[in-house]
Amino acid sequence: MVIITALDVADDDAYAAFHALYARSIDTELDPPWEFRELRMKLAGDEYVQSVALVAVDGDEAVGGAWAELTLKDNLQNAFATIFVDPQHRRRGFGSALWRELAVALRDQGRTVVAGEAVKRVDAVESDSERFAETLGFHVDLVNAIRELPLPADPPKAPARDGYQLAAWRGLAPEQWRAEYAHLRSLITQEAPLGEVAWENEFWDAARLELEARQWQESGRVAQIVAAVAPHGALVGHTQLIVPDASDEVYQWDTLVLPEHRGHGLGLSLKAAAMREAADLVAGRRRITTWNAASNEPMIAVNERLGYRLIGYATEYAIDLSDASPAER
C-alpha cells in the first residue's frame, strides 16, 4: 500500500533521496531536472513563494514525489504543480495518488486553479506526461515550443539602434536600475502570450531582486542580464541568461520589450548581447535552451535568427479544483 507523506526539506537524507528519485524520473534531454541545491532552495521557500512537497513510498521504497509552488504576494488562487514517478513504477496509480493528496493540500491553502507542464519531443504524437495530465482531468491551456542552440555559437551582430543603448550586469541589478528593473520583471505575465488561466502580474520589488541574487549565488547559478535603455533614459526591456555551475546547460529565461518600444530590433539586440557578455560563462557548455509560447512568432523569429532549433513542446495544463470530480475531492 502506498503511503504519502510531506517531505522534510531540512532532512539531508530525506531530501537527497527525493532529489535522486526526481532526477531519474525527468526527461533530461528536453527538460533537465533542477540541480540539487537549486531544487532544495525552491522547496524551502521564502517570503514570496512557498512550496508543498510530498513523497510516495510503497513498502520501503520511494516511488514518486510531487511539489507545488504557491506565490504569496500575487496569484493567490493559483498553484503550479510537478508530479513525478520512477520509470520502473509507472502505471500503478502512484502518480494519481500523489495528485489526490496534493489537491487536498492545495485546497486547504485556498488554491483553486492548478497548472503544470508536460513535455514531448518534436516528433512525438503524445507523451506519457500528457496522457497522465488528461487522465487526471487537466485541460490544455497553452503550448510552448522548446528550442536549443548548440554551443559554441556565434551570435549575429545586432547593435542597439534608433537611440537605444544596452546595459549589462551579472546578478543583482545596479542600484540605479533596481526599481525600474523590478517593474520590468513584474510584467512578463501580462506581456507574454497566455492561455485561459488568469495569471496576475508577479510581485517584484528591490528587496526581491536582492533575495534572488543571493539565491542564485547560493545555488550555484550566474545570471547574465542585459537591459535596453530608451533614449529618454528609462529601462524598457531585458533578457536573462542563466548559467548553473553543476551542469553543461545554459538557460535563456525571460526576454521582454515593452510594447511601445517594439519594432526597433531590441529583442535580437538583447539576446545577442547577452551571449557575447556571457562568453566566458558559456565556454565549454553544450547548449542554450529556451521556451516560448508556440504562438509567439516575433520571439521565435528572433530565436531562429540566433540559430535555435525546435526540439520539443511543453504543454501547459490546468485544472479548476472547484470543478474536480467527486473522486478527486
From TrEMBL:
Signal peptide as annotated in the record: none
InterPro entries for this protein: Acyl_CoA_acyltransferase (IPR016181), GNAT_dom (IPR000182), MshD_Acetyltransferase (IPR050276)
CDD domains noted in UniProt: NAT_SF (cd04301)
Domain of life per record: Bacteria
UniProt KW Nuclease keyword: no
GO MF term set: acyltransferase activity, transferring groups other than amino-acyl groups
Keywords carried by this UniProt record: Transferase
Domain N-acetyltransferase: 2-154, 182-328
PANTHER family with a match to the protein in the record: L-AMINO ACID N-ACETYLTRANSFERASE
Protein name per UniProt: GNAT family N-acetyltransferase
Organism: Aeromicrobium camelliae
